[in-house]
């Protein structure tokens, strides 16, 4: 919150900082990218291969089948070519219950991909499930590369020959764990990519990035499915069904958005362990990568310490914020009065946040999310001209000057909005401004200029004391 606090000695710093703020470029829209889907039966190393291709640990990996349950998108690059890499859950034909939903996600990923990587376990050899998947892929009208994984040494190369029986051409023998021949595989992927991605029916126009966060089982995946109008994220009555962030393009109110459904946050990242640790870490990364965050709260239950911690983490990350109170269909008049008191007491740090009361189950008021998101993002991008800001600030400080500190009253000599996303004000002063006075300035600033839905940072630079001449 104070990364721009410091000192100044020369008035030219005013102009330099203001000029830099004026020249800040707005992010350009991203061009559409071809899609590469990674599919296969459970526990063949799909997520390990995804991490190997990305060159970093993004997908959650654990030595048990079924850790990946949704289809998750990542940006990848090889030989200067950008593409979207989609990790999927294990495909098991004839599955039921939760596994059937996971299989459906894998099938959907294949239908939307430009290139498909079918990952099989070279040590086990072709199974009935592998043959069923290969049969479907042979009928598809897109390139399919057969990846023989877990070839960790030369002695296992003869085992790869049996995979020719799948009818998908030459298998690429790799070790996702150790990186063996992964470069050759990526060369083949890039060579198979089309010049332009397949038409998906959606026009890509730089969709704004929205992270959907909250406690486990608060209804994040259900809300995402309601917004998309399809079973986009796996939903189950068991808390913690979502492990990785799930990326979705969603059209709301005539505008395209990129929604990221995240794992439920139970604990602080530092105190989580195993899969939960990596899921929490990826949720934090999803917040950092987002432009606006929807924090989903269960309106039918009292606000918890974990709810407040999540809201605070979003504000501290400097992201635009919308509070969505879910399960509103379960809220009666008495609960509404209780909730109002809880909000006044617990959410005192974010009175500026947009609020929407929704029901992911019935679809109540979900159409109000798009206007709330737009309002928050407009504020997040807003900039007040320097002249207008200083004129307003001079009148305010004349009426309510800063409190005296150390026997002297600080003066504010110049102010500029040094940045957006989030809006950041820098005040050049003759002395330190107390936190309480900064909060006063922020409140008055919002009353004058708006900025609903976004945090505001106010930093102070104090004039250096010049050494006395001897």
UniProtKB/TrEMBL annotation:
GO terms for molecular function: GTP binding; ribosome binding. InterPro entries: AAA+_ATPase (IPR003593), G_ENGA (IPR031166), GTP-bd (IPR006073), GTPase_Der (IPR016484), KH_dom-like (IPR032859), KH_dom-like_a/b (IPR015946), P-loop_NTPase (IPR027417), Small_GTP-bd (IPR005225). GTP 2 binds at residues 214-221, 261-265, 326-329. It holds the Pfam family MMR_HSR1. Residues 34-197, 208-381 form the EngA-type G domain. Belongs to the TRAFAC class TrmE-Era-EngA-EngB-Septin-like GTPase superfamily. EngA (Der) GTPase family. This is GTPase Der. It comes from Saccharomonospora viridis. The gene is der.
